[in-house]
Design brief:
single chain, alpha+beta, Nucleotidyltransferase, domain 5, 2 domains, four-stranded mixed beta sheet, 6 helices, globular
């Protein structure tokens, strides 16, 4: 073991399990550790995770991959993190403890509400919300299958089907552009509060 920072640690905290992967400077996998995550189904269509189990398994994965690789934590230069993203969780701001289980992104308990919102505003509310929070115009493309279109654009650029990215953006079709509106002040205030909460969460164990 030495104190030279020669590795990057990646944490992949997924829906079915938590994994720690150690990379060297060449981008090669040195070692990894994985632990399956318990799935809880309180009712049909509902799916929850125990946040304490996620934390404990993440600690175990980090410790295990270091042990398997025979290195110390001082040799880690940085930690990359990828998570479930849409999974929701509330924490007590004072104790740092979870108030309830994490509601997993696959959970269907609010599906009917989401369908009603979609039918009523055709996603206008969410698009406007993004414009207000970001403080910039947000475009809704005419082609809603943006993932497939993006993949097609990437493939076309790679083989020269389109000469450059500018050509693609110049010809793309936009259904509607949402500009920052009346809600921008409140949205920006909420965003700053969120940033403050994130900063506080970084140091709550100190």
């Amino acid at each position: 073991m030495n104190n030279q920072k020669s590795y990057i640690l990646a944490l992949d905290l997924g829906t079915t399990g938590n994994r720690a992967i150690l990379f060297n400077k060449e981008g090669e996998i040195v070692n990894s550790a994985y632990k399956e995550l318990t799935q809880y189904y309180p009712q049909p269509g509902w799916l929850e995770h125990d946040p304490r189990e996620i934390w404990q398994d993440t600690c175990w994965a980090m410790q295990t991959v270091l042990q398997k690789a025979g290195i110390s934590a001082k040799e880690i230069s940085a930690i990359g993190l990828t998570v479930q993203r849409e999974t929701c969780l509330l924490w007590d701001k004072t104790t740092g403890r979870p108030l309830y289980n994490a509601i997993v992104w696959q959970d269907r308990r609010t599906a009917n509400l989401c369908d009603r919102i979609k039918q009523q505003c055709q996603n206008n509310f969410l698009m406007q919300f993004q414009a207000d929070v970001l403080g910039i115009p947000v475009e809704r493309p005419a082609i809603l299958d943006a993932s497939a279109q993006g993949a097609a654009f990437a493939a076309g650029l790679a083989v020269g089907f389109w000469p450059d990215y500018t050509t693609i953006t110049a010809s793309r079709q936009v259904d509607r552009t949402f500009h920052p509106g009346e809600g921008v002040t409140q949205a920006q205030a909420n965003f700053k509060m969120w940033q403050k909460a994130v900063e506080r969460a970084k140091h709550w164990t100190e």
